[in-house]
Specification:
heterodimer, A: 299 residues, alpha+beta, Cytochrome Bc1 Complex, Chain D, domain 2, Immunoglobulin-like, five-stranded mixed beta sheet, 8 helices, 34% helix, 20% strand, B: 442 residues
């Protein structure tokens, strides 16, 4: 019986440590990553600004232990628990995120992420930066997009050009292109992904009834579909007069129930004010009458 | 009737209705008990002021907890002044005369305290003025603040006007009145000498107030219901919420009046004025409003229960067979269906049984507000992710409970003071109904 209990305790312990270990593992090769540059005071200064904008709302001010009360707790990043990690570990966590921590892969460029780490390390007097290792030269395709609207074809033509090995520019075929238009909340994809032909072109049909701004302009952008980030790409942006001119006032521009006080509907202002005036008019009249009771007896 | 008979009867009525106006030991002990209890609750509130609303069980899911349930209950209970005095009074039901002041006292006490409850739900009560400074006329919160203030003032005036004549009698005729109180009564009686012009003003003012009271009272509870019904949440998103709340309010208020009648009758020896007939009739009123409320309950649960839209289904499942089922069925059956069945029989409308039924109804009425306010919030349309367990399930804390009890103590203090220092039953009106046209002031 006693033996069983011990077993259970050992089992629970191992379970507990497993759960703890499962929390957020950084792969070993990522742990070993070091910064490409030596941390400088300028980097720390820039890192501070980035930290205040992107990190402070949850992690609080470094050294003040005033992080947001969330589960799991974000913690103060100037403290030992965070500082005992390698630069590579911190970089990996910032890059990938883990709910509720957001991923900054597409929010902060790599250099900015390193600046934030430089700032955080400035709170650790024992920290000595490992020798920087510059990133290896890029060997993949380097693609640049451009975009035009072809009136005769009634199509948007996206042209992809690439830097060839000999340094010359050439047309890039076989590149997957995605086309987006800007809407209220972010970008909306138009049509499917198209692959560039031998002339480096991808043609997109654009709907004829698409609502543009009040002059008919639409903000269009073309991007390379490169989910594994094996290329270096430059998207193309253009404002084209290909939409239907649309002039709708913003939902908060006119008087409405959901607007601010200054834009309250007239009928509600009148109803409210009149009701208050009428009822309180009677109330004051009654109070005045009550005071008259006293005078009547004197007279 | 001769002049002497007249005076004899009037003296008898005066003595019957005012003999309790004196400061005795029982009153001191009772008030002492209330004051100490209030002090304990205020200490709990001071802890909330220092530490913030976190000391209460309310979190990001259930942001309206006991405080708001309590607020709805208090607004509900205050509505009875309108039903008794205005609706039934204007119809011309003479038997109501001895009950009107009890109803008005309850209305004033509950309406006055309802506003304070809202302040207890504020994390930064010192910013109360912002409600007015930054008021949006589109917001039901502003309407609610406006109508509750208006209803309170109307009820206070309606309580005061019939008291003018009574106070004129008291400061002249009641020997037990402490001498330091005499000038207070004298100045509050506004030199009333029962002149026809004075009576005319009082009667006309009362009539205007009674008419104003009906829309004001309907507004306060309809607007309170809109605080819930204008959101699209399951359990609140309902078009019958206004009448559902108003009819529920009449149930709570009638029960409160019957309980008060019972204790005043016993403590102030008013058996000749609050007779079995009054309890019988109030029992009928309570049964009638309960039936109306039952009708709205059936509407409120059967219609969404028939359609079972997804969010409604989750909500109703919790109420009918889930976490809140026990509370729900005890409240609906024990606080509504069973009392109605009992009250159909005359023998249960005798003073003691109807008072016991009213206590059950009133307690159920409080928990009914809990059922309306809290379970809905535990099932939001868009659940928050990665929150601690105590965000998801609401359970009130001790401090919160104490702060919730405080308004009840305040109401008891207000009712005790009004009933102790003024006749519980309108003196002047009772005399007039007994055929005494003019009071003789010597």
């Amino acid at each position: 019986m006693r033996f069983n209990k011990t077993l259970i305790i050992i089992f629970l312990f191992s379970l507990g440590t497993r759960v703890a270990a499962q929390t957020w593992v950084v792969p070993d090769d990522q742990k070993a990553v070091v910064a490409p540059l030596k941390f400088t005071p300028d980097m720390q200064k820039q890192g501070e600004q980035l930290y205040m904008k992107n990190c402070q709302s949850c992690h609080g001010l470094p050294g003040k232990d005033n992080w947001a009360k969330l589960t799991p707790p974000p913690g103060d990043l100037s403290k030992e628990k965070a500082q005992k990690q390698t630069d590579g570990e911190i970089f990996y966590r910032i890059t990938t995120g883990k709910v509720p921590m957001p991923e900054f892969r597409n929010i902060l460029p790599e250099d900015d992420r390193w600046s934030v780490i430089a700032y955080l390390r400035s709170f650790n007097p024992k920290y000595i930066q490992p020798n920087p290792v510059a990133k290896a030269a890029f060997t993949g395709r380097i693609v640049t997009l451009s975009m035009q609207y072809s009136e005769p074809m009634k199509k948007i033509v996206v042209t992809a050009s690439e830097q060839l090995k000999d340094g010359q520019a050439g047309l890039a075929s076989g590149v997957e292109i995605m086309l987006y238009v800007k809407r209220y909340f972010g970008k909306m994809q138009v049509g499917d992904v198209k692959t560039t032909n031998a002339k480096g072109q991808a043609l997109f049909e654009f709907p004829a009834d698409f609502p543009g701004n009040k002059d008919g302009y639409v903000e269009v952008s073309a991007m390379v579909n490169d989910p594994k980030s094996i290329m270096k790409t430059t998207p193309a942006n253009a404002t084209l007069a290909i939409g239907v001119p649309t002039d709708k006032p913003s939902l908060t521009a006119t008087r409405a129930m959901w607007s601010t006080r200054d834009k309250a509907p007239v009928w509600i202002l009148l109803t409210y004010t009149l009701s208050v005036i009428i009822v309180w008019g009677f109330i004051f009249y009654i109070i005045y009458s009550i005071l008259k009771i006293k005078r009547l007896s004197n007279g | 009737m001769t002049m002497d008979d007249n005076n004899l009867t009037f003296d008898k009525i005066t003595s019957d209705l005012t003999h309790h106006i004196r400061i005795n030991k029982g009153f001191m002990v009772w008030m002492g008990f209330l004051t100490v209890s209030l002090a304990v609750c205020l200490y709990a509130y001071s802890m909330q002021l220092r530490t913030g609303l976190g000391v209460a069980g309310i979190r990001d899911y259930v942001t309206w907890g006991l405080y708001l349930a309590n607020f709805v209950f208090f607004v509900a209970a205050s509505l009875i002044g309108m039903l008794i005095s205005a609706v039934l009074g204007l119809i011309g039901m003479k038997w109501l005369t001895p009950i009107t002041r009890i109803a008005e006292t309850i209305a004033v006490a509950f309406a006055a305290v309802a506003g304070l409850i809202i302040i207890s739900d504020m994390g930064r009560p010192e910013r109360l003025a912002y409600v007015f400074i930054y008021a949006r006329p589109q917001s039901p919160i502003l309407w609610d603040v406006t109508v509750i203030t208006t209803y309170f003032v109307l009820s206070l005036l309606l309580l005061f006007l019939p008291l003018i004549a009574d106070m004129a009698v008291i400061h002249r005729k009641v020997a037990s009145l402490p001498s330091w109180l005499k000038p207070v009564y004298k100045s509050l009686s506004l030199n009333f000498t029962d002149r026809p012009e004075q009576n005319k003003i009082i009667n006309r003012s009362i009539r205007i107030l009674l008419i104003l009271l009906i829309p004001a009272a309907l507004s306060i509870h309809t607007v309170t219901s809109w605080l819930f019904a204008v959101t699209s949440r399951a359990g609140w998103d309902s078009t019958v919420f206004g009448p559902y709340f108003v009819s529920g309010a009449f149930v709570a208020g009638s029960a409160a009046v019957i309980i008060a009648m019972f204790f005043f009758r016993k403590n102030y020896k008013l058996q000749d004025y609050l007779t079995d007939m009054h309890f019988n009739n109030m029992g009928k009123v309570l049964a009638t409003v309960s039936l109306v409320y039952l009708y709205f309950n059936i509407n409120e649960f059967l219609v969404p229960g028939y359609k079972m839209k997804r969010a409604d289904a989750v909500h109703l499942q919790e109420l009918f067979a889930g976490k809140d089922a026990l509370l729900f069925w005890v409240v609906q059956l024990g606080g509504l269906v069973l009392p109605i069945l009992f009250m159909l029989f005359r023998r249960f409308r005798k003073p003691l049984p109807i008072m016991l039924i009213s206590i059950a109804v009133l307690i159920a009425a409080w928990f009914k507000r809990y059922i309306i306010v809290i379970p809905t919030q535990e099932h939001p349309f868009l659940p928050i992710q990665h929150v601690p367990q105590n965000f998801v399930h609401y359970s009130p804390t001790l401090i919160e409970t104490l702060i919730t009890i405080a308004p009840f103590i305040l109401v008891l203090i207000i009712i005790t003071l009004i009933s102790k220092f003024f006749p519980v039953i309108p003196l002047h009106e009772t005399a007039r109904e007994k055929g005494i046209e003019h009071i003789k002031f010597d």
